[in-house]
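Researcher: Structure for this, please.
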Amino acid sequence: MTGPDLALGLTVLAMLGLRGAGLLLGGALRPDHPVIAWAASVSVATLAAFVVLALVAPSGLLATVPWAARLAGVVAGAIGWQLSRGAMLPALGAGFAGLLLAWWIAP
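Model: Predicted structure, token format:
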């Protein structure tokens, strides 16, 4: 087993353990408990960091997408999220449509 494979395997195991602990803890606490609010805030902040990283410094296939198209996708997704009152699927669809439209208009 190579170093990257071992690192990936250990990361998967750690995340599964944390997820299991979260399920046990989350089932025992009220939805308005401060620990649950903190965990929700951390997960939103982590997602926001990944979105910004993908927008500003993409890697792999995403690096071939023009910056303007990536920005248009994020803006369209945010607008879709606002218009759908926080529903994730319409926001993802709007973001993807915005990205494709911007990429098609200005290749």
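Researcher: Any notable elements?
Model: Residues 54 and 62 are 8 Å apart (CA to CA). The helical segments are 3-28, 34-56, 67-83, 88-105.
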